[in-house]
Every structure is written in C-alpha cells, then in structure tokens.
Amino acid sequence: MLVTTTEMFKKAYNGGYAIGAFNVNNMEIIQGITEAASELKSPLILQVSKGAREYANHTYLVKLVEAAVSLYPDMPIALHLDHGDSFELCKSCIDGGFTSVMIDMSSKSFDENVEVTKKVVEYAHSKGVVVEAELGTLAGIEDDVKVEEGKQSYTDPSTVEEFVDKTHCDSLAIAIGTSHGAYKFKPGTNPKLRFDILEEVSRRIPGFPIVLHGASSVPQEFVEMINKYGGNMPGAIGVPEDQLRHAAELSVCKINIDSDIRLAMTGNIRKYFAEHPDHFDPRQYLKPARAAVKEMVAHKIKNVLGSAGKI
Ligand code: G3H
Ligand code: 13P
Ligand code: ZN
After folding, report:
1. What is the secondary structure of 77-121 as a DSSP string?
2. Whether 82 is catalytic
3. Which of 33, 243, 257, 262 is 20–30 Å from 306 (CA)?
C-alpha cells in the first residue's frame, strides 16, 4: 500500500537515519529504485516534480508507482509531489493519489509562504495527505524557478517555530548549503554544510522532521564515464557522502536525490552507445542504465541513508 511519510519519519528521526526520496520520470527509474529498496528492505519515497508530470503524464507515473506497490506489498512507499508551486498543483496531486506533497513558496515572502502553505495543509490533511514546506532558498533550478548563485539564502532558524506553528506542515525543507543540480560547489573548495543551522533549527523544533534538498553526491565515477564517452561536464561536484550521513544521524529524515540518477543513467547509456555503435534497441541501452540506478540507490541506502532493514 502507498503510505504517508508520518510513520517513516518518526522511526527515522528516532533511529538516526533518513529515507531516500528519489525523483522518478519513467519506468526504468522506478524499477531500478524499487528493486534496490525492496532487496534491502528499506522504506522509500518516490517523488514526482511538476516537470516529471508534464513529461510522463500524471496517470502514467501514478500507475507505474502502483505497479511497484503491488509487486512489493510489504514495502512502505510514499508517493510525493516535489516542489509544488501552487495550491492547484498540490490539490491535483492530492486528488490524484499522492500521499504527500511539497508546497514550495520559499522564494516568496514569509507571510505569503505561510498563507499558501497553510491553505495546502488544510486541504491535504482533510484528505489524509501530509505536507512538506520550505524555508530558505537553495541555488539551482527548481522546475521553473531558477535561483541564481549568490541569491540563495540559508534558513533563518529564528523563523522556524512561528512557521511550523502557523502552517501545521508535517516536515520542513531547510537551506544549509546544498543546491540543486550537478554543480554544487566550486572545484578546489572544501564543501561544508552549515550543521550549526541544522542544529539550531532542531533545538527550536525538537522532534520535527527536516528535509534536505539538493543532496546528490555527484559520484565522480559517473562524471568520468560521461566525460570519457563524449560528454562534457567538467567540475561537476556534489555533497560529500559523510556529511549526508551526518545529517541523517541528526534531524534530517528525508534526503532528496535526482541528479545522481541522471548521472548514473547518462554515463551508462553513453558508454553503451560508444561500445555498441550498431545497436539501436532501447531495451539494450536502458538495461545497463536501470542496473546502474539500482546499484547507486543500493549504495545510498547502505552507506549514506542508513535505512536498510528498517521496514
Ligand atoms: O529539484 C528539482 C528536481 O531535481 C526535479 O527536477 O524539475 O527537472 O524534474 P525537474
Ligand atoms: P539533486 O539535484 O541534488 O539531486 O537534488 C534533488 C532535489 O532536491 C529534488 O527536490
Ligand atoms: Zn529539491
């Protein structure tokens, strides 16, 4: 059965681990992720962005996720809207079978963020659906909203109690130095998340589940594979895995991963094309791409999230 994240987050918070929230856009991605999570007996969040919904169609994605749910009946899986940018989009996902939605008004004023989030929460809760909100802005691309480098702002811990009290959201995404995409830090610098902000937030709202966006680690083996086989991604750098692990031990209960899926697939498809120039059956090159997603997700569950065996 599809579940909400309530139980998952409670256990993750108390157990010092996090649930992986992986972005899904097609069947092979859903298969790779769910096969890894089911073999490792890990709870799972599958998340769909506005762009994914436009690419694949709401119904296709819901039915594909439902197929995974029926193949793995013992696995708690939540279906989540990533970066909902309006009440209407959230409502459409709530009415259309999602068990969790994010309303992202982080680029708006505090008051507008509170107002829209509160409206989404009231509707979602009346339907048994949970809501993630965001305070602070990450650099990078969140669907249509591009936050330029330098324009991002860390979450101000002094605002979180009022925000949670006023909105009654169920989890909160905060900005502590991560960003979306494959270029998170300048080459040669020493990436450091602001754990002082995370700790201060948790001191003010103890027991409340925190979400980390932009949490891909950009594995260099995929970047090298892409660059070796005709791609051009110099200087792609992600969040160090030990820092993600540390965040998971603290109050971070949900870690969002999309770019690493893209890199795993693209690297392996490029390699396949280079090594088999005469092949043209999509099943041939999607097979190693799907296997790479599975292996990458398994690695995250075991070594970064700590969610193996937690169902
Ligand atoms: O945070 C953004 C996610 O990586 C989703 O990306 O909007 O291109 O589907 P997308
Ligand atoms: P990455 O780009 O680091 O994978 O972040 C994904 C994300 O935050 C989706 O909401
Ligand atoms: Zn995000």
Report:
1. EEEEEEEE-SHHHHHHHHHTT-SEEEE--TTS-HHHHHHHHHHHH
2. yes
3. 262
The domain that contains 101 carries what CATH number?
Answer: 3.20.20.70
User: Does 215 contact ligand 2 (Cβ within 6 A)?
Assistant: yes
Note residues around ion ligand 3 (Cβ under 5 angstroms).
213
Minimum-distance ligand 1 atom for the alpha carbon of 180: 1
Enclosing domain of residue 284:
6-305
Instruction: State the pLDDT at residue 149.
Output: 60
Question: Cβ < 6 Å from ligand 1: which residues?
Answer: 23, 49, 51-52, 82-83, 142-143, 180, 258
- Report the number of distinct structural domains present in the chain: 1
CA distance 87 to 268: 38
Q: Ligand 1: which atom is nearest the Cα of residue 259?
A: 4
Q: Which of these is catalytic: 82, 85, 104, 170?
A: 82
Is the overall model pTM greater than 0.70, yes or no? yes
Ligand 2 pocket, residue 23 CB under 6 Å: yes
CA distance 249 to 76: 21
Per-residue model confidence (pLDDT) at position 1: 83
Question: Would residue 260 count as lying in a domain?
Answer: yes
| Structural domain contains residue 232 | yes
On whether residue 266 sits in a domain, the answer given is yes
* Spatial CA neighbour of 174 closest among 122, 215, 119: 215
Tokens standing for residue 97: 């079978």
Can you tell me the distance from the alpha carbon of 18 to that of 252, in angstroms, rounded to the nearest whole number? 6
The residues that bridge with 142 in the sheet, in sequence order, are 145
For the chain, percent of residues with pLDDT exceeding 70: 95
For residue 203, the one-letter residue type is R
Domain presence at residue 310: no
Residue 97: how many other CB atoms lie within 10 Å:
16
Measure the N-to-C terminal CA separation of the chain; round to a whole number of Å: 13
Q: What is the pLDDT of residue 259?
A: 98
